[in-house]
Amino acid sequence: MMKKIILASGNQHKLKEIQSILKDFEFELVTMADAGFGDEEIIEDGDTFEANSLIKAKAVYEKLGLASLADDSGLSVDFLGGAPGVYSARYSGEPKSDQRNNEKLLAALKDVPLDQRTARFVTVITLMFENGDTLVARGEVEGRIGFEPSGSNGFGYDPLFEVPALGKTFAELTEDQKNAMSHRGNALIVLKQMIREYYESTSNK
């Protein structure tokens, strides 16, 4: 029987990416909106990606009584002590704006040389099963922050996030290229292995 899992997001692109990587399992993934969660806002007030991911998964699980999956992502810049981190989406305040966030980040790194502009995108995914068992997977992709935006694909900090091995920003990659190396993709690969191990361990009990 297909297991229904509620995605704690309304993002269809995210839904498709997760579905494609977890397609080996008998999961029917649906967004929280389609599952009838309503327009109640989930307050993400954790100070780590793990905490916020769990907050979202738990809120959906407790309200709908179904298995849930949530992710929390952000950019961590070494020179800034890991900022903007969990505040990535609202780095420049409300209402959230990718352009203002990028401008603030460039200003914070003004005159910082290239070798000190190392950064990584991080995603933490929490999967909460119907019985309350929880799996947490983390994925990262290493890069650096460029001196000016480049490229028109993607969103968020993609125009500033350079992949040194490719000599391109995330915003200069095709969707397939980005997905093949993205932090969310990496976290999902880790999660896939964790799900396999979970099923193996529970079936042996």
UniProtKB/TrEMBL annotation:
Cofactor binding: number and manner: Binds 1 Mg(2+) ion per subunit.
Residues at the active site: 72 (proton acceptor)
Domain of life: Bacteria
SUPFAM superfamilies in alphabetical order: ITPase-like
Keywords, alphabetical: Hydrolase, Magnesium, Metal-binding, Nucleotide metabolism, Nucleotide-binding
Protein residues bound to Mg(2+): 72
Gene3D superfamilies: 3.90.950.10
Sample GO molecular function, one term: ITP diphosphatase activity
Binding site for substrate: 9-14, 73, 155-158, 178, 183-184
Catalytic activity, as annotated: dITP + H2O = dIMP + diphosphate + H(+); ITP + H2O = IMP + diphosphate + H(+); XTP + H2O = XMP + diphosphate + H(+)
Cofactor: Mg(2+)
InterPro entries documented for this protein: dITP/XTP_pyrophosphatase (IPR020922), ITPase-like_fam (IPR029001), RdgB/HAM1 (IPR002637)
E.C. designation(s): 3.6.1.66
Subunit structure of this chain's protein: Homodimer.
NCBIfam families cross-referenced by the UniProt entry: PRK14822.1 (NF011397), RdgB/HAM1 family non-canonical purine NTP pyrophosphatase (TIGR00042)
Function text: Pyrophosphatase that catalyzes the hydrolysis of nucleoside triphosphates to their monophosphate derivatives, with a high preference for the non-canonical purine nucleotides XTP (xanthosine triphosphate), dITP (deoxyinosine triphosphate) and ITP. Seems to function as a house-cleaning enzyme that removes non-canonical purine nucleotides from the nucleotide pool, thus preventing their incorporation into DNA/RNA and avoiding chromosomal lesions.
Family: Belongs to the HAM1 NTPase family.
Protein name according to UniProt: dITP/XTP pyrophosphatase
Species whose genome carries this gene: Fusibacter bizertensis
